[in-house]
Amino acid sequence: MKSNSRRKFLRSLSTGVSASILLPGLTIADSAGFFEDTLHKLNKIADPRSEAYWETIKSQFEFTDGLKYFNNASLGGSSIPIRNATRAYRDTLDAFPSKYMWGGWKDEKEETREAVARLFSVSSEEIALIHNTTEGMNLIARSFDLEPGDEVVLADHEHSSGRIPWEVWQETKGIHLVRPTLPILPKDVNDLVKVYEDAITPRTKVISMCHIVNTNGMMLPVKEVSEMAHERGILVAVDGAQSAGMYKIDLNDLGCDFYAASSHKWLFSPKGVGVFYARQESQKHLRPLIVARGHRDDSIRRLENYNTRNLPEVLGLGAAVNFINEIGIDKIHDRTFDLKAYFREKINTHPKLILKTPASDQLSGAIQVVEVQGRGVAEAKNILIEDYNIDCRPMSGFDLNALRISLAIYITKSDIDYLINALSEITDS
Fold first, then answer.
1. CB contact at 8 A, 247 and 336
2. What is the pLDDT of residue 8?
């Protein structure tokens, strides 16, 4: 396809016009074209910190009419360019199934792997393209030949998908799961590091931890814990479901051995796609969950050897990374903490709205939880959705009685104002 024709085709998809032709050989790099019109608008805005800039980003996400979606930590929405790119891959596959399922997209799949690796500042030989965080945590927990009496440290705020795999694959064999208690509102990083340090014994083999807990949005000190653990010969596995894509992450700098993330939250990919990182020197510990032809591959690809799989969604992850890159992960990082600061400042003016997420940028990001005093959390959540069309997640565990608010890049400060007004009216009613 000639360059001009290709651009017209991409532009027609980015505006939602159905195309009667397919785009043969659509590559991951081409998917950036779905964002082309919006890039022109963004380039005309001088200050990327302005609300006009982020209102333009917001226009790329399409939710049900009137919905204010503050529930990205549960499940993110794909932007229109990502949806359209994924749809183009799906149409291409269905037009010639055997070609594209069995090798026709080999290069494109590797381009996706490389794009993910660059986003997290690691080698593409350290990235597997899996289904979700749950799969990644199962892969880790099932791989180890631990002996009865060995210990795995899992703090009390672990997500069930990070806890249950260790219970099923290791605790049943006599492995001891150590469950230290994390403070809800630590004063600083050292408060959290000490929890893990105190939990370590000579029998500790693995520390499995969240990067950001899903309960109250607390960010855990993966780098500091990894340094401490490695000095003692202990491996560190990280559930990154709530951090991947929220802000800039350098996995080499974090220093963990393994990191699993669902890309359908803060990376905005199609659903059912995930990212798995394993440090090169730590890959020897891992065994694939599923075995088929190619299971003897020495590379990290042996961990994603599913035979038939949903490749349009995998390549849609590549389009999602392109979308993030076109905006810029540095801009997303800054916007995350700008929205957090704005939200907390507004909340702090209301005596009946109580924040239950640590304030420091070292201890939290775009997930904040707030209690509406005098209201049960289920009641508050129902009022918000029924009367204000605001969706968020109620969190009742750990005595939180709080609403979990997600501040994704499609949230604007006017959206936050609307939310704060609704919360204020709930407290007064």
1. yes
2. 43
Residue 196 has φ and ψ, to the nearest 5°, of: -75, -40
Cβ neighbours of residue 135 closer than 8 Å, sequence gap 6 or more: 260, 274, 276, 289
Is the distance from CB of 182 to CB of 155 less than 8 angstroms? yes
Phi, psi of 68 (to 5 degrees): -100, 110
The string of pLDDT tens digits covering residues 312-357 is 999 999 999 999 999 999 999 999 999 999 999 999 999 999 999 9
CA 83 vs. chain centroid, Å, equals 17
> What distances in angstroms separate CA 26 from CA 10, 31, 102, 111, 273, one per listed residue?
10, 8, 16, 12, 19
Q: How far apart are CA 320 and CA 312, in angstroms?
A: 12
Task: Round to whole Å and give the CA distance between 223 and 228.
Answer: 9
Residue 88 tokens, joined: 């183009």
Q: What is the pTM of this model?
A: 0.92
Q: What percent of the chain has pLDDT over 90?
A: 87
pLDDT digits (tens, 9 = 90+) for 215-251: 999 999 999 999 999 999 999 999 999 999 999 999 9
342 and 249 within one domain = no
Q: How far apart are CA 226 and CA 230, in angstroms?
A: 6
CB atoms within 10 A of CB 87: 17
Domain count, the chain: 2
Q: Are 235 and 229 a contacting pair, CB within 8 Å?
A: yes
State the Cα–Cα distance between residues 142 and 100, nearest whole angstrom.
32
- Domain end residue (candidates: 305, 323, 341): 323
Q: What is the rounded distance in angstroms from the CA atom of residue 312 to the CA atom of residue 262?
A: 16
Cβ-count burial of 66 within 10 angstroms (0-12 exposed, 13-18 middle, 19+ buried)?
Answer: exposed
CATH number reported for the structural domain that contains residue 257 in this entry:
3.40.640.10
The residue among 216, 223, 224 whose CA lies nearest residue 242 is 216
Query: The domain containing residue 361 runs over which residues?
Result: 330-428
Query: In the block, which residue shows the tokens 């038939």?
Result: 308
Whether the per-residue pLDDT at 12 is higher than 70: the answer is: no
What is the structure's pLDDT at 11? 44
Using CA atoms of 191, 196, 201, 207 in order, give the dihedral in degrees to the nearest 10.
Answer: -170
Whether pLDDT at 22 is above 50: no
* Residues with Cβ within 8 Å of residue 292, at least 6 apart in sequence: 305, 306, 307
